[in-house]
Amino acid sequence: MNCAQVRDSLAEYQLGGLSAEERRGVAQHLEDCADCRAELAALERLDELLTPAERVRAPADMWSRIQPRLRRRRAPWWQGLLASPRPAIAAAAAMLLAVAGIWLTTRGPATTIETEALASGYQEQQIVAQWSSPLADDAALGLMFASLNGDVVEP
Question: Domain extents for the chain?
């Protein structure tokens, strides 16, 4: 037997709950292993400390006196959904309808004149902001700016 097996069996060994074969295996291991002997000695000492403890029986009506004073725990929010899923289904359906409505109303041409104007304004701001950067490629920024304004003539 190894130390892990013996330590798992030490309490049963001490109380005499092992079969004769298991008891021999544990005893043989204990002869060779000082760590397991120390563990058994600690268990025996613990047993000696607990033996004089007086065993007290709880009064029969103890629980009936304690229970009314306990506060009720609040159930997690999702347990209400399990008890009655109708509100959750209604909420999911409403959410689905709202998303579908938004999708249908915003569906249309990918770019309009207004969004193109906003995009070009944003691009101009970005080009101007990058112009003074020491790592900026002035020629590339100039071409991008000119293409936004329609100044580039294609060869």
Answer: 3-50, 113-149
